[in-house]
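Translate sequence into C-alpha cells.
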Amino acid sequence: MTLTLALDAAETELVAGGTATLTAHATRGPSSNGPITITLVGLPSGVTAAPATIADGQTQGTVTLSAVAGATQGLAAISAAGALGSITASAAASLFVRGAPGTLDTSFAASGVMFNPQSAVMELHAAAVQADGKILVGGELYHTGTPSSTAHVVRIDESGKLDSTFGNAGTSSIGFATGGAESFYALAIAPGGSIMAGGFSFTGSSNDRAIAARLGPDGKPDVSFNATGKYITSFPGAQGARSLGMILQKDGKLTLLGEVPAGQGTWGAARVTAQGGSDAMFGGGGQVLPGPTSGALQCGGEQSDGNLMVAGGVYEGGMQRWGITRLIAATGAVDGAYGVFGFAKLSLAASSAIFACRVDSADRLVGAAYLVEAGTAKIAVGRFGKDGVFDPTFHAGQPVAVPLGAGEAYPTGLFLQKDGKIVVAGSSPAGILTVLRFGTDGTLDPSFGSGGSLTASGGLSALANLSYSGFDETRRRVVLAGNANLGAAGGWFVSRVWL
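Result follows.
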C-alpha cells in the first residue's frame, strides 16, 4: 500500500472571523483501499480545522478552516497529514491570516503600529512599499543644535522592525550639502528594485532647490545616477524651487512636481533622466512652469500614452481651488486639448486643493483634497475624465466629501486597487490613522471599517505632523507613517491597515 498527498493551493487566505477551504488530493497505490483521514498541522493560534475524510474509492476531500476574530495574523507554514490505515503522507502549504478590511494589521509590530522614540529628531514625509512587503519611509534627520537636516530613508521589514540589511542598521542619510533643511517628500520603487526619492532643500530663500536621489536595494547611493546618486535642480534665474511630489515614468525618467519660486509661487516641474541628468527636451533645460500664477503641484501620474497628468492647488480670488493639467510627455508643454485651454479647475464652497492623486486604467485622474467647511474637516475625492471634465459617473458628477470632525484633515495618499476601489489615507482631527475606501462610483464602501472608514489612534496621540502613506497591493494593505507622541516621548510611527 502507498499514498501520496497534494493540496490544491500553495497558499490559502483566511480572514479573521471567517472561514476558508483547502482541498487535499490523494493518489492511492495498488490495494490502497479504505478511507483517508486528513488533518491540518501547525495552525496558528485562533485557527481550527476539523479533520476531513476522503472516502474509499475517492481521491479528494475538503478541509474547512475557521478563524476567530482575534486569530494570529500573518503568514504561517502548515501541512496536511493523511492517514490510510498505517500508511501516512503529508503535503506542505502556507496559510495567510488577514484581518477584516479596515482593521489594524496585528502581524505588524504586534499591534499594527510601530513606534520609534526619537533619540535623534526625524520627521517623516513619504512612504512606499516594496514588492517583498518591506516598507520605506523618508523625510529628514535634523542635526542637533542647527536648523539644517539631511534627507533620510528608513526601511522596515514585514514584522515591523528596522531592516538591518539596509543602509546603516536600517537607515540611510543622503546629504546634498546645500546648507539647508534637506528632506524627501516622495518615494517610489523602480522595476529593478532601485529606490527613487524626491524632495527639496529648504533655506527660506531663492536658494531652495528640488532634489532627487536613486538608492540601490541596499540603501546606498547608486553612483550610476549622476555619478553620485544625487541630483539638484537649478531653475533659470534667482528662483527657489520645492518638490512636493514626483512621477516615476515607465521609461525610467523622473518628473519632480512642486512650486517655483518657493512659497505660493507657480506650478513647477523638472524632468530627470534615468542617468541622473536634466532632460533637455523637457521645457527649458529640464524644467517647465506649466501652471497658473499662484499655486503648487502636489501629485501626478502617467497615462497609457506616456503623457503626464499633474494636479494640485490654484489660488484664485483669495481661495484655493483644484487644478489639473496634462503635460505632453516629450516636451512638458501643456496639452491645450485638455479641459479649458489646457486646464481643468474645480471650485468648492471653501478653499480646497488636491494633495494626492493617481491615474487609473482608463487614463482618468482620481484626486483627493482637503476641505474645511464651517469648522468641520473633510477629505474630498473626485474623478476627472481624459478630456478634463468631471466624470459624471462618479458620485453624480460631484466630489464626495467625508466629514472627519472639527479641525483639519489632509489626504496624504490615494491608491487604486486592482478591483477599481479607491483608497484614501491621511490624517484626521480625531486620530493618527485615517483610511477611507470608495467604490468605483464614489460611494463609501460599507465593507471597509465602519461604513467605509477607519479612524483610530492605535495608542498614539498628539499628532505632530501629517501621516504619509504607501500601498501594498500584493497583500492588500495600506501603510501610514508620520510623527506623533506616545505619552511624553516624541517619535515617529508606522502603521499597517488591511484593505
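Note: The mean pLDDT is 90.
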